[in-house]
Every structure is written in structure tokens, then in C-alpha cells.
Amino acid sequence: MYCASWYGGDNMPQFEVELTVFCTIEIAQSVLDGVLTDEWRAQFYALTTPQDVADHLAYNMVVHRAGLSQLDGFADHPDRDARVFGEEWV
User: Fold this and answer.
1) How far is CA 24 from CA 12, 43, 64, in A?
2) Region of residue 66 (phi > 0: left; psi between -120 and 50: alpha; otherwise: beta)
3) Who contacts 64 (Cβ-Cβ below 8 Å, separation ≥6)?
4) Is residue 6 part of a domain?
5) How many domains does the chain have?
6) Local mean pLDDT, 10-residue blocks, the chain (90 residues)
7) What's the confidence (pLDDT) of residue 9?
8) What is the pLDDT of residue 6?
9) Is residue 81 part of a domain?
10) What's residue 10's pLDDT?
11) 10 part of a folded domain
12) What is the pLDDT of residue 12?
């Protein structure tokens, strides 16, 4: 939670926002093999299925326009190991 006084106090308007995007993501098997381990989860995120990994990567790659190597926990993988395509914002 952000401190309201830091961001202008009680006079700041608040907005509800929904972001919806459909896309396809290709992920190298080496990425999935490295992520779906207890050791990796203890250090980074509680991703337990390939779909969890796909959701996490696609969100960050689309919304933040980040390459795979820029994402926390994936710096040891080249960007070519995950590719998002067919983005369709709704």
C-alpha cells in the first residue's frame, strides 16, 4: 500500500482499472525446467505449473514490455527463450 501523503494526500482521485489482453507465449523447455523447482520457488515466485509460468511471463512481457532476461529470476535466460505474439487487447 502506498502512503497517501507521499502521493499528494487525500485529494488525489482514485480509479478502478481493468486490463485484459489475450496472447500466445512460447517458452523454451529449459526455462520451465529451471523454474518448476522448490529451490527456484524458495528464491523467487510460487509458480507451480507450466501455466503459472506462462501467465507470469506473458503478463510481464506484455504489460511491462520486458524481455525474459529482464525479469526477476530469469536473468540467466536469453530473451529468445520466451516469445509473446498475437497480442489482442480487449
Assistant:
1) 37, 27, 16
2) beta
3) none
4) no
5) 1
6) 55 89 97 94 95 96 97 97 95
7) 62
8) 57
9) yes
10) 72
11) no
12) 87
Residue 2 lies in a domain: no
User: For residue 83, how many other CB atoms are within 10 A of its CB?
Assistant: 15
Indicate left, alpha or beta for 73 from its phi (over 0: left) and psi (-120 to 50: alpha).
left
Residues 6+ apart with CB under 8 A from 47: 35, 36, 41, 53, 56
User: What does the CA dihedral 63, 67, 70, 71 come to, rounded to 10 degrees?
Assistant: 60
Of 24, 23, 27, the C-alpha closest to 78 is 27
The one-letter amino acid code at 21 reads V
Q: How far from chain centre, in Å, is Cα 69?
A: 12
Integer-rounded Cα Rg, in Å, for the chain is 16
Question: How many C-beta atoms lie closer than 10 Å to residue 89's C-beta?
Answer: 9
Domain of residue 24 covers 17-89
Q: What's this model's pTM, rounded to 2 decimal places?
A: 0.81
